[in-house]
Amino acid sequence: MNTSGELNQGGFVAGTESLAFGVLILVAGAILIVNAWSMVDGRVTLDAAAREYLRSYTEASDPLTATAQGRSALLRVIDGRAALVEGLSMQEPDPASFGPCAPALLELSVEVPSIRMPFIGDFGSHQVNVRHVELINAHKQMSGGAGYKPEVTACAG
Description:
alpha+beta
């Protein structure tokens, strides 16, 4: 109180401003955490999908079956993730080079939304890329692709 009996409210205003600033910092931090988590989650999901694709692909007995089993395994992993399924671009292994001990290269890429806000939708996005290589089973009886050259595989030596 001052000498005339009125309350001094300067401290109240400063307290309210600092509270608003604290809430702003909390919201900005939460947005950063959500963005980081969506990127990590997208990367882990694509990584798991690529590994399952190549596991199925490298254990198949012919190129057509390998491609079908690989795609099926990939879709099982990302099932229920509409954003990943819709925007997925995939560079599959060449079926012509399919054969024992040949490398199978898979590249996956997708645009992952950073934040989904109610009534607004996606707010920002980032690109997630995954690249995996695995050797096709060298000890399984299989029919090779049209361009399969056993002399240039990892098992040739």
